[in-house]
Amino acid sequence: MAGEKPHRTGRDNVDTHGNVVMFPVDAAAYSDRAVKLLDRLQYDKALRYFRRAVECEPGDAIHQCNLAGALAETGRFEESNLILRHIVNELDPSMSECYYYMANNFAYLECYQEAEAALDIYLALDPQGAYGSEAHEMKEMLHDEMNRPGAYPGARPPANAAAFEEAARGLKEAAAALNQAAESEGSGEPANPSGQAREAQSGQEAEHQEARRMMEEGRFVEAGRILERLLQADPDDLPARNNLALAYYYMGFFKESCEMLHQVLALDPGHMHALCNLAIFERQAGRTEQERELIERLAKLQPFHREPAFKLANTLGILGRHEEAYRHLRRLLATGSPAEPGVYHCAAVAACHLGRYDEAAGWWAACRRLDPESGIGSYYLELLQRRAGGLPDPVPSYHYRIPYEAKARSGRRAERSAAAERNVRHEAGEPGAAAEWERQLKSDPLVRSSLFWALRSGDSATKLQALQALSLINDEEAKQALRGLLLDPEQDGYVKELTLYVLRLLGVEDALEVEWDGKKQLVDGYHLISGLPIWEPDWQQVIDAIRTGMNGRYDMIQMHDAEKLWIEFLRRSYPNEVPRIAKADSWAAAIEYIIAKKHGHPITCSEAGGRYAVSAATVAKHAKRMEEAFRAEATEKNIYQ
């Protein structure tokens, strides 16, 4: 509407005596000024100038149409439709596009039958009109909203807007008849579903709700099981298929998630949620061309309900289309219905990316009023105040959360295993930093999904960090993810060694199935392959001494490497060079000394011996013997990687 029509431009008036350029007072100049303001999303000012244009030339249909468009942009759909009907009824009945604009307004008001009636009138009046393809696409979307296939029979074009209500009533009656016929066709039973059918439908909805709750809590494996069960019962359940794609994605199964979304789009090419998710997945995979095509499709969508409208806006923002995202968000916030604080946050982020920092501050202030406890609005307002030109640092994210780095920068080492937790708290400098990180690991779905993704698809260092973090979670979801990693043929041996070790630390006692060298095997202990035909109690005493002595001062990976070092030393020494274990602590001290040096921790033989009540000479003797055993056969790389 506004901005889509040509505008007449007035001529500036110049006061040559004072060299003051006077702003023209004709309607065209007001309209031009309003369009520029509308382009900058300054809706209130744009409305003021459009009203002045209408006051100057009340009989001009173009100015009236621009005003109706600006009203619609601010969510005042009823006022917009009153003006549009006035245009076709009193000013210019030939402006058939007004019916298309009315249809959009009706749709946003969730008056879908009235919207479809207006579209039918538009298509009947102007079959080759400028919005013909958009009108047909919109009718399909309306059918989806009303869960009704098919289309109305063609309507006779009314002579003017006065016949609109009558046409709408007729079309609504036809819709009701069509619905009843479609529901009863071929069944021989009443259209109303039976009690049994209602009970089944209620059960499915309950399972959908349960799966969504689990997804929100980051319990993706459990949610996936429910969604897979729903799809077995109903393969055409598109919401279940779309949510299962998300669950796969968050668990790191990228290929499976994309396949699931393509299945959704094969059944419904216009499924907005699937398009949004697939666009983000394609960006994650770096497939620029596929991402661009999906963004172009998304940019054409105009969802009517708040939830899909917010989903689209959020997706466009994440994909860098901040202008389009801001337009959708502004419209959501202008409708007058209560908005979640997350909507205000996303509007602020979009405004920030567009350089509209004053507007961003206003949205974050509203966010702070609605949700003061989270501190999100306050955090970003402070970030805005501290910025030194350009975007704030860090750049605001569309995710409704404070970046973890901002909350506990000094607590990053809290990702370590539970064994190192006390040491981490001391080093963090903030007593609650490690506890806060652990809380986020267990409850924040974004953090959990990042870990599952890193576990499957990250580089070697990232996978090790994810394993350490998962050792803190210790719930069934984490254990299932780790079990799956043991069966993944793409994971290297060291990652599987550590995964097995973590599962044992988390209390998993049963035999674990592991894919190793193309074969599956069951493993009972803490380590995959010892290469030893026997396991003596004395050897286990050294392992126990390592776990007791190093606990709380070394992280999970270092603890694992210490145990693996001992097992590998025994393998290389067996059967003729295996030492006699007189005192397990002396060998544990030597092992800690070697591991500390390997990981860059300053330590002397005397310090290592003091921790285990053995002499420095004994530590040095055992350490030398172990190092010679490894030099004789291979490098340490074979032990740890």
List the helices and strands and how they pair.
Elements: E1 13-15, E2 20-22, H1 27-39, H2 43-56, H3 61-73, H4 77-91, H5 97-108, H6 112-125, H7 132-145, H8 164-184, H9 195-216, H10 220-233, H11 238-250, H12 254-267, H13 272-285, H14 288-299, H15 306-318, H16 322-334, H17 341-353, H18 357-370, H19 376-386, H20 404-408, H21 421-428, H22 433-443, H23 445-457, H24 460-473, H25 476-486, H26 493-505, E3 512-516, E4 519-523, H27 537-550, H28 556-573, H29 584-598, H30 605-612, H31 616-633, H32 637-640
Describe the structure.
This protein has 641 residues and is mostly helical. Among the domains are: 13-178, Alpha Horseshoe (Serine Threonine Protein Phosphatase 5, Tetratricopeptide repeat); 206-301, Alpha Horseshoe (Serine Threonine Protein Phosphatase 5, Tetratricopeptide repeat); 444-513, Alpha Horseshoe (Leucine-rich Repeat Variant); 537-640, Cyclin-like (Cyclin A, domain 1, Orthogonal Bundle). It is 66% helix and 2% strand. The strands form two sheets. A two-stranded antiparallel sheet has the order 1-2. The chain has a two-stranded antiparallel ribbon with strand order 3-4. A hairpin with a 4-residue loop joins strand 1 (13-15) and strand 2. Helix 6 (112-125) crosses helix 8 (164-184), helix 11 runs antiparallel to helix 12 (254-267) and helix 30 (605-612) packs across helix 31. The longest helix has 22 residues, at 195-216. The two termini are 64 Å apart.
